[in-house]
């Protein structure tokens, strides 16, 4: 079983990915883990990636694609299948993944696409506040301070401010839309409503995966 999981920041992709891996016994392949492993093991692509990172430069697509190919070619993946998480991030990477899978005589069985209204994600992601004195973290809506919320006593990190979050969501939507369209043409996208409770969302995902 070879799967790809997609979803906007805050949609619960990481939580659901962990539950999928636990239940179905497939290999979780996330971009970050892949890079760390390739660099630690000093693979050809890992050494190349590190040379860019050490200079503070972005790792080019061809190197990222090479690291993905190295990982997908490993024995545990061919034995158990994979759940790709965080790749592809662009339509060019999606095309490269098609070519990689073809070279390795593998195929993608399904794309789990967790859908949550961006306006809800904006509220979810931009509500985090930090108490100036104690450093304790709260959420304006989901975990407000018991004593009430006085703005002068709290601050937001730049990453949590609504305008920053909206920009991040907009970028992710712009990048993700053509990728989803690419896989829809192949008939392998399964849309999952992500607004429900975690277990309810996972139940729906499980039904989809079990049917593949």
TrEMBL record:
Catalyzes the reversible transfer of the terminal phosphate group between ATP and AMP. Plays an important role in cellular energy homeostasis and in adenine nucleotide metabolism. GO terms for cellular component: cytoplasm. ATP binds at residues 10-15, 128, 137-138, 196. Residues 30-59 are annotated as: NMP. AMP binds at residues 31, 36, 57-59, 86-89, 93, 157, 168. Its EC number is 2.7.4.3. The gene is adk. Consists of three domains, a large central CORE domain and two small peripheral domains, NMPbind and LID, which undergo movements during catalysis. The LID domain closes over the site of phosphoryl transfer upon ATP binding. Assembling and dissambling the active center during each catalytic cycle provides an effective means to prevent ATP hydrolysis. It catalyses: AMP + ATP = 2 ADP. Pathway: Purine metabolism; AMP biosynthesis via salvage pathway; AMP from ADP: step 1/1. GO terms for biological process: AMP salvage. Monomer. InterPro entries: Adenyl_kin_sub (IPR006259), Adenylat/UMP-CMP_kin (IPR000850), Adenylat_kinase_CS (IPR033690), P-loop_NTPase (IPR027417). The keyword Transport does not apply. This is Adenylate kinase. Signal peptide: none annotated.
């Amino acid at each position: 079983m070879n799967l790809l999981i997609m979803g906007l920041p805050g949609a619960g992709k990481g939580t659901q990915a962990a539950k999928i891996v636990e239940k179905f016994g497939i290999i979780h392949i996330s971009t970050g883990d892949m890079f760390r492993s390739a660099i630690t093991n000093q693979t050809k692509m890992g050494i190349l990636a590190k040379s860019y990172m050490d200079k503070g430069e972005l790792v080019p697509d061809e190197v990222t694609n090479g690291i993905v190919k190295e990982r997908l070619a490993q024995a545990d993946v061919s034995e158990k299948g994979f759940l790709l998480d965080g790749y592809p991030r662009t339509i060019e990477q999606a095309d490269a993944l098609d070519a990689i899978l073809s070279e390795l005589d593998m195929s993608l069985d399904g794309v789990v696409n967790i859908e949550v209204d961006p306006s809800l994600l904006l509220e979810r992601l931009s509500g985090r506040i930090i108490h100036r004195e104690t450093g304790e973290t709260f959420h304006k809506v989901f975990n407000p301070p018991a004593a009430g919320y006085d703005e002068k006593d709290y601050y937001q990190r730049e990453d949590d401010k609504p305008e920053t979050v909206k920009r991040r969501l907009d970028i992710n939507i712009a990048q993700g839309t053509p990728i989803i369209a690419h896989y829809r043409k192949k008939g392998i996208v399964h849309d999952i409503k992500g607004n429900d409770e975690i277990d309810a969302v996972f139940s729906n995902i499980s039904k989809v995966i079990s049917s593949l």
